[in-house]
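#onboarding

Welcome to the new folks! Below is a worked example of what a typical request in this channel looks like: someone posts a single protein sequence, and someone else replies with the predicted structure as tokens. Don't worry about understanding the tokens yet, we'll cover that in week two.

Example request:
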Amino acid sequence: MSAPTTRDPATPLWRGTVVLRVVTWLFALAVVIAHRADFQRPWLAWLVAGVMGAWTVLSSLAYLRENGRRRWLVVFDVVLTTALMLTSPWILSDAQYNAAAPLITTVWAAVGPLAAATRFGARGGVTAGLIVAVGTGVAREAVNLDVVRDGVLLCASGLLVGMAATLARSSAEKLARALRAEAATAERERLARSIHDSVLQVLARVRKRGLEAGGEAAELARLAGEQEVALRALVSSEPKRSGDLEDLRSALQLLATTSVQVSTPAGTVNLPAHVTEELVAITREALSNVEKHAGPDAHAWVLLEDLGGEVVVSIRDDGPGIERGRLERAVAEGRLGVVKSIRGRVADLGGTAVLDSGPGRGTEWEVRVPATMRDGR
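Example response:
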């Protein structure tokens, strides 16, 4: 699979801006030629037209190259366009003002806001459109219907082009993420096939022969079985999402062993990375307590539920349970493992942790945390 291109997704808009700038300068030059006898300072009109032509060439060469589309250059473009427009009162005669003749920059002035929109997005396009619109009003020395109309058109075009540029870049980024995820999935599937044909088969054989032999070999068989389950969960889990979100479902599935069963929804459960990490740490702590206090023969079940507004993680075991008052005595003795590792972590996430236990009926933790900052929510 070929690597995704690094070209600016808004390149077609830049090319369109360059073409429009050339066309509008030719139009402005034609206006100067047609009205050269009416200007009160023809030499200044020719000078401004020459500066416009030189800037058309320089900016076009810059905008056609990705490394030439600098922020400062686009800002200078808008400033220079407005400054050239403000020379109109020294160029146009009173008769031309009375006849509502075009300013010296004519429609060439509209290209600056379009470049700003392509570079900065809708907000930059509208801002540049407002700057040029104010310059139009100052150059006209009046605020009339024509000036307001030009301002609306400048802002609207900046808004639309800016939205198009932002959408193009966003779509390209999503496509790049999809291509990376597809490549990661393909590599994971290749590794899974390789592992299945080698490591997993060896672990399965060790587990089978150890159980048949019994004694100390049975303990080795149990450990091999746990590693087999963990490895299968690893190669079958979804790749991590790029960015600030991680899939809690895939992370919890890696905790499955021969004595720990993990049940999760069919789809991904994407949460902020730090929330996922904390919930996995909480679950590990609860499973560690099962191993320490419930004995090697105890079984545990982890259940993940996605309720939309919140996520619920339940950890239950079939051990002897916790006798009444035991946690209170642990706190009094300064042993704060459960309180700090589980309840403290959950409280930091803005959630709740409820413990349900008793002699002879096992232990169950129910952890609830709000599902904030999620895709599409």
